[in-house]
Structure formats: C-alpha cells, structure tokens
C-alpha cells in the first residue's frame, strides 16, 4: 500500500504524517509526502517528532508531481489549502482529508508554540493509527 501525504509546504504536517506512518506501519506500507510548494523541514516539527522517538530529519521536502500521484494508492491531504488544490487523482486512488491547522503559524511564547506542535504531532499520530487499523481490517 502506497500512502502519499500532501500539504501546502511539505514542512510540518505532511512530514509528521510520513514519519508516523513509517514508524507505525513498518514494512506493510510505503509512504511519501509532498507539498504544493517545498518550504524545507520545519525545525520545530523535527524536534517535536524526535521527542516522540521518530526521526524525520532526513526526509526531503519536495514538490508534488505526477509521479507521486501515479505511485499512490491513498492520497491524504492534511490541510484545507492542499485539499482545495489537490490535482485530479487516477480512478481507484482513495483520497482522505485531515484538516489540520498549520503549527508553523503558532504564536506566543516558546512553550506555547511547542505545545501547538505537540498537539499537532499527537493528533496526526491518532489519524495515522486509525488509517493503518482501517487498512489492516480491509
């Protein structure tokens, strides 16, 4: 099963989803992430995932292209902007949408920003666990 996560900049949410899927799904799934643009890995996303025991530091931040779409069995948009601008998918490709707020836009103290990243990380883990359970049941 090939899972592709798509967001606007491929820097936080889709990267976290890719990391969780690789970590929790093991060899039963293949996973990629891409963005409508490539903003580079967000250091807060990398640090937040590292605390949870998941290293995403070597994942590339890449721009979505046709080969990603053709490769995927499941495409998951993780933000409303990517959902609205997702290209047409081939017949048979399953599409899911997880409307997650962008943690990179969080404001406040360092602790408040960290908490937003932790909340996003934990929400994404729950989504990924549910997706993997659904795939296993099918």
- Domain count: the total is 1
Give the mean pLDDT.
Answer: 96
Question: What structural class should be given to the helix and strand makeup?
Answer: alpha/beta
Distance between the termini: 12 Å
Helices and strands, in N-to-C order?
A: EHEHHEHEH
Give the strand order of the largest sheet, numbering strands 1, 2, ... along the chain.
2-1-3-4
The main β sheet shows up as: 4 strands, parallel
What does it look like?
The chain has 138 residues and is of the alpha/beta class. The protein has one domain (2-137): Rossmann fold, CATH 3.40.50. It is 45% helix and 14% strand. The protein is built from five helices and four strands; from the N terminus they run E-H-E-H-H-E-H-E-H. The protein has helices at 13-25, 43-51, 66-71, 80-85, 110-137, and strands at 2-7, 30-35, 74-77, 94-97. Helix 1 crosses helix 5 (110-137) and helix 2 (43-51) packs across helix 5. The longest helix is centred in the last third of the chain and has 28 residues, at 110-137. The radius of gyration is 14 Å and the shape is globular. The mean pLDDT is 96.
Main attributes of the structure:
single chain, 138 residues, alpha/beta, Rossmann fold, four-stranded parallel beta sheet, 5 helices, 4 strands, 45% helix, globular
